[in-house]
UniProtKB/TrEMBL annotation:
HAMAP family: Formate_dehydrogenase. Its EC number is 1.17.1.9. The record marks 285, 333 as: Important for catalytic activity. This is Formate dehydrogenase. It comes from Hyphomicrobium album. It holds the Pfam family 2-Hacid_dh_C.
Amino acid sequence: MAKVLCVLYDDPVDGYPKEYARDDIPKITKYPDGQTTPTPKAVDFKPGELLGSVSGELGLRKFLESQGHTLVVTSDKDGPNSAFEKELPDAEIVISQPFWPAYMTKERFDKAKKLKLIITAGIGSDHTDLQAAMDKGVTVAEVTYCNSISVSEHIVMMILALVRNYIPSYGWVIKGGWNIADCVERSYDLEGMNIGTVAAGRIGLAALRRLKPFDVKLHYYDKHRLPNEVEQELGLTFHPNVESLVKVCDVVTINTPLHPETENLFDDKLIAKMKRGSYIVNTARGKIVDRDAVVRALESGQLAGYAGDVWFPQPAPKDHPWRTMPHHGMTPHISGSSLSAQARYAAGTREILESYFANKPIRTEYLIVDKGKLAGAGAHSYTAGDATKGSEDAARFKKSA
Ligand code: NDP
């Protein structure tokens, strides 16, 4: 029987919800490419419930315990004395969400002698040292597409919030003001602007589709070109490299996975090539941009705004400079963890577990590493290597909280 070690974020400070703002969520059975949403045999939760926090347990306890497995759930994930590290040596399966990632470094792989499967309940497995997973023969799977649309909605929200100067304007209302000039001195229309995405995968393309009705000029850069009919339908300009895209765009949204090719992509040099007063929205991964280069560019005016929900490490220490830099619209990592998305990735996690325990293949689309190499979605979008370096700094959050 397997021990399943699951790392989830803490419950709300006021306790696990007894009721919700809405009574139901729309039922979605297919993603835009025709792939079905997760199809486990059953689920033991009501879609729309909070599943990603400790008490939500991703709705897995009944299912796992009824089969004789052990489920351990904790939010205490960082540092050598954490509950996670204490439970790791005899765990067969580790589950965590990118929002509150269990960083699986090489050192932790060395301690996890029984580990066979790591599941990302969400998308983006960069918190796992993929090279170590390949070397140790551990399978890594994620719930591909589960929250791609959720993130694309967040991107549109953040672009509008920055360009129209929403957050400071809301602030004036809370402060009791009616300071129109203060609000509008940095407020523009999106109409007519050039907006580009770095990567046009599931999220990047969904963001482009949602931005099209704003009468903007759309651009993209990706390793692979989109079909001609999609380029025509959306009026897209393809760029053969990221420099060419950033030179002409007013707004750039970053939508690549984090892997050795994309780590630190937006450094001082690349940001200097952008138009003065550009905006960056990064909901992909914090490490794709140079943390301090972003702060410098906001302070100098090279960037007019920066928003996103991804940081490094996570949780970000209290003194992380992005909490206090000017003209930012940061949220904690939440865009892919709406209650709507949680229902899908909890069901997807269950689907992966059902396949694993029944010795059946896991959906190819869900695979990142399998049988010692990049596989499925991982083989398409990742390169081999390790992006977890520096993650031990996440332990500082506890001390500063
Ligand atoms: P996809 O795999 O559908 O898209 C990723 C795209 O990135 C692919 O088109 C891929 O290209 C492209 N790509 C990879 N490397 C490069 C590179 N070096 N240069 C240019 N393009 C590159 O994934 P999603 O769109 O669903 O998700 C993307 C990322 O967003 C995730 O990996 C994750 O990090 C992040 N994410 C964030 C969430 C949040 O809550 N904030 C939630 C979900 C995801 P190709 O396949 O053509 O080779």
